[in-house]
């Protein structure tokens, strides 16, 4: 059967488009066989598993942080069983896996200008000596970021001076922090206002998730980096 003039023109046009697609795929990459087949059949390629999977940002945040901001996630301990976690810029600073967390206050110090980890320490607030915490907090340098996550009991040994020092870092909850409360906090030496990064869950028999302990707290966000200090 011979093709009429208009029909022949359509077939030639389709062949020309197909060969052009093949040539482009060969030059620039891609699955040419699928592309040509889709053109002629009208089918659409289904997304792959990797394309369907939600994109992951630093420390598991749901969205990326703006430039000159540090991504973080804090998780307080669960009862006296599961240890806390402190993540910064997709690096786990403190966790049970790293074997550097313990009962009480788990604190990571970070350079607020560079985002560099300075030190991590744990302070037993049930049977420990609060003087160790005081010696740790008193000499902090201006601009130092302070990440805190509780585990088990973070309050029993706190005294007026230790609470005041943590208040000066931007905490509003530490004043009322009590036995076995869950607490996560990010503050800074020299902060002018109260920190927006703080959560506290009160230990209460009527609302505790675990027997004798409230539920674990989880907090994440983006912290603006501090400009270099003048002089």
Q: Going across the major beta sheet, what is the strand order?
A: 5-4-6-7-8
Major pleated sheet: 5 strands, antiparallel
The secondary structure category is: alpha+beta
**Over all CA atoms, what is the radius of gyration?**
28 Å
Number of helices: 5
Low-confidence parts lasting 5 or more residues at pLDDT below 50?
30-44
pLDDT averaged over residues: 85
Number of strands: 9
Gross geometry: globular
- Strand percentage, roughly? 15-25%
What multimeric state do the chains show? single chain
The helix/strand series, from N terminus to C terminus, equals: HHHEEEEEHEHEEE
The CA-CA distance between the termini, in Å, is 90 Å
Bin the helical content: 10-25%
Description:
- GO terms for molecular function: carbohydrate binding.
- It holds the Pfam family ILEI.
- Residues 103-190 form the ILEI/PANDER domain.
- The chain has 231 residues and is α+β, with helices and mostly antiparallel strands.
- The chain contains five helices and nine strands.
- It has helices spanning 5-28, 32-41, 49-52, 130-137, 160-168, and strands at 69-75, 85-88, 91-94, 104-111, 117-123, 144-151, 182-188, 198-201, 218-224.
Helix and strand arrangement:
Elements: H1 5-28, H2 32-41, H3 49-52, E1 69-75, E2 85-88, E3 91-94, E4 104-111, E5 117-123, H4 130-137, E6 144-151, H5 160-168, E7 182-188, E8 198-201, E9 218-224
Antiparallel strand pairs: 1-2, 1-9, 2-3, 4-5, 4-6, 6-7, 7-8
Keywords: Disulfide bond, Lectin, Secreted, Signal
Domain ILEI/PANDER: 103-190
GO molecular function: carbohydrate binding
